[in-house]
């Protein structure tokens, strides 16, 4: 599909680029060749946005950005690049100007909020023993255990970083709501999605880790964004 946009996948908190593994394989099997998954430091929104921006600038031709969780804030912050043709949010934050993921979460607290704990170095972790229930209840126990052990913790301060100018004000948007999400309140996802006036909103009976538990449905939405963009 050389004539199709490239797809750049942006991970969230408590996981790295490999969280997109099942979606990557699904898209490859559908014939997509230009697939990219950025690995972010999760140190600040500015740094994570710049890391993603650099990857997109290396791609010649149009790009569809796909953000999961905090990755939605990242594509909101940097997705105004000229070659970005669409934004796909997968159970993701979509802050408005002056909003942060932390502020949004406090307005509609998720069920697993109390299972996020800081360490002495300022990083936030999902308690390993509660990761399965909190993050990915619709995955197997073994899959969840591996994700819990390999989780990538963000600096706590990243939660408070505000978006400046939201890219979704100018770019076409698609949004996936996870109805059983315990990391972002599903009503919060619906609220964020609605105010962006997306081309399409889908709801999946899924945990926060819909990209891993329902990769086919998530890939369907990405394909719609590729076609629509």
Automatic annotation (TrEMBL):
Gene Ontology MF annotations: hydrolase activity
One Pfam entry name: Abhydrolase_6
InterPro entries: AB_hydrolase_1 (IPR000073), AB_hydrolase_fold (IPR029058), Sec-Metab_Biosynth_Hydrolase (IPR052897)
Swiss-Prot/TrEMBL keywords: Hydrolase
Top-level taxon of origin: Bacteria
AB hydrolase-1 domain span: 7-220
Matches recorded under Gene3D superfamilies: alpha/beta hydrolase
The protein, known as: Alpha/beta hydrolase
Organism for this UniProt entry: Streptomyces katsurahamanus
